[in-house]
Amino acid sequence: MFRIAGSVTAARLTAACCRTVTTKQFQVHGASLHVLSSDTSRKTRHGPAHRTPPSWQSVRSMASAGESQSKINYIFFGLAALFGGGGIVYWWSRKYMRETSKDTPKKAAAAVSSASKEAAETVAEKPVPETTKSAPAAPPPAVETPAEAAPDAESKKLLDAVPQSYPDFEVMPEIPGHAKYLLIGGGTASFAAFRAIRASDAKAQVLVVTEEEELPYMRPPLSKELWYSDEPKLVEKMKFKQWNGKERSVYYNPPSFYVEPKELAYQENGGVAVVKGRKVMKLNPQKQVAVLDNGWEIFYDKVLIATGGRPRNIPVFERASQEVKDRVTLFRGIKDFKRLDEVSKNASSIVVVGGGFLGSELTCALGKRSRDSSLKVIQMFPEQGNMGKVLPEYLSQWTTAKVREEGATVKPETFVKRARFSDGKVILKLNTGEEISTDHVVVAVGLEPNTELAKESGLEVDDMHGGFRVNAELEARSDIWVAGDASSFYDIKLGRRRVEHHDHAVVSGRLAGENMTGAKKPYWHQSMFWSDLGPDVGYEAIGIVDSSLPTVAVFAKATEKDTPRAVVEETGESLRSVTETEALSIFGSAMQQAAPATVPDLEVMEATLPTKEGVRDTKVFDLANYPFALFPHPESATDEPAPDVEAAAKLVAEVEAENRVAPTPKEDYGKGVIFYLRDDIIVGVVLWNLFNRMPIARKIVKEGKQHQDLAEVAKLFDLHADED
User: What is the CA radius of gyration of the chain?
Assistant: First the structure.
């Protein structure tokens, strides 16, 4: 139980001789069993720097020292057990071990030096023959370092047992004691970060610590494609078929991509290791130490916090009995998907609480499954329609009708007041007075950012938006970065924000990784998000998309190419944030050119604007029904300036005689673009069944200009590109 300086092989021999050494004791002497030289700094002490094979004399010396030390240890432990003073004797034994460990390297070195000196003196003092005494004195021969004597059998056996380059991983701790790059969290942000780190530092050694028992994976398929697979064995392997039929895994990389954590420090070309099932409880920014839930400490040079969020629950289920809690799923990760997948195969009814992106996607997925079984799916939420906090009211109602077509029962403006367990069922008492009996409940009402590290680590939390407060470079403190759902960042165009979407995790993780390697880049990217209600209806959005803002929308007839299935078939990629890269090459030049002189034949235009009384007013303009040519077709274009869209809207509103109401869900909104306004500036854009146009929307939001004619802006999206 002592530490020997100078050689990795010495550490292996020491561990072999002292079998009572525990993992915790390894940590006390330098964390990873990498033996330290006295002049080695903390940040480099864990690398594979000791490559010189030991001499057999030093091996014997160290072995002898180890045997002596082991005997002393056994005596002390025996005394502790015999006299009952275990605590006191153990303390003194540990103290003795530490003191002797300081002297052991010196003794070992002295033993080798003494052997060399004695051999040299033997050569120098060799007697001169009598026959040469009368001869003239010759200069003394130069003393050369004697060749190393051949080791005996026992020494050779010890030497062969010592590895010449690497330690014995069987006695190494499972978790290393140092990481140049430490990533906390195993989600998309960490994945993007270690890719960026490795791109900038090819030999980087990156350690990922995650609470989940999974390697880094993508979350979007958990509520989308996985539910539409007809191959159960494929789903068991967490693989799915994209809308185009191409097979893919939810895991970003296969297991072979990663190295074992205890072998990470010995990868000359670097690598990525993942510690699964462990949680970082505290950071010490001054000492640059992370403390795990098992007490293990990891020294780091740079650290990224990418802890994401945990599913938000509602009080009625938090206060419920354990029987009810056992039948409630807070949907978030692979574990939750597997559980709900199994429940849906045997349950007679499932209730989904929540009408946002996740709740609506899961309802459509479960509704599709109910078509081939007796499963009944019920969705409820307090808003007036699905995704009512994001979409304009008319489009939200249309979406609700779409969800019902998928086979689900939708209950808007409904919430749970009480929950109890009776006769094997969960009984839900609703605000409407109705009671619903169900086998299982899925709660999908948003996320709470994981910020438990903040209090213990001296990090600032954003009280308004939640998450760790970071600067423009995503840095919370020196050498500490935050990315993904847990970061509250400052947007120079839209103010301080916190975003909970896949694309933001990718972009912020990549930026944090680059800055951890010295890039010092500010965050400027406007992240996008998307949602698919099955393979036939989907949308993409960017910026602030809040249904409380005034909106203006333009729609056109959809074609077979205007579906999520079609865009995946065309690009071969189901992650919409990835297809945006390809879209840049297609539409990138559109924003560099002047807008066309005329507006396309826009068939439906909707405007949601505040009235003088402050009440939101929604109007829909079906321009194809009016005889006057407000928007000439490109084929009949003239050199006359484009008409004022506001004047046209006013004229149409007068013709409507204020008796036109918001569109009913029966109306078909094939594809279109919705602009969200704040002070007449476009701050958000939704592309409804309109794909590969996100670079254009991003540039519009980034510019932050006032637009007098939104019809001109809508032309940039080329709504009629695929029409015959």
Answer: 35
Residue 19 three-state SS: coil
pLDDT tens digits along 118-145: 544 544 444 544 444 444 555 555 555 4
Going 685 to 691 to 696 to 698, the CA torsion angle's sign is positive
Is the distance from CB of 719 to CB of 556 less than 8 angstroms? yes
Among residues 443, 287, 273, the alpha carbon closest in space to that of 350 is found at: 443
Assess contact for 105 and 6: CB atoms under 8 A: yes
Q: In angstroms, rounded to a whole number, what is the distance separating the alpha carbons of residues 121 and 123?
A: 5
Residue bearing tokens 């650290």: 303
Tell me how far apart the alpha carbons of residues 264 and 176 are, in angstroms, rounded to a whole number: 8
Q: Nearest 5°: phi and psi at 119?
A: -65, -40
Q: Are strands 309-311 and 447-449 parallel, antiparallel or unpaired?
A: antiparallel
Fill in the amino acid letter for 268. E
Provide φ and ψ at 298, rounded to 5°. -125, 120
The pair of three-digit structure tokens given for residue 51, joined into one six-digit string: 């490559």
pTM to 2 decimal places: 0.68
d(CA 192, CA 582): 19
For residues 357, 361, 362, 364, the Cα torsion angle rounded to the nearest 10 degrees is 140
DSSP states of 166-220: S--GGGS-SS-SEEEEEEE--SHHHHHHHHHHHHH-TT-EEEEEESSSS-SB-SG
Structure confidence at residue 651 (pLDDT): 44
- pLDDT tier at 708, thresholds 50, 70, 90: confident
Say whether 310 sits in a helix, a strand or coil. strand
Coil/strand/helix, residue 573? coil
Write down the mean pLDDT value for the chain: 75
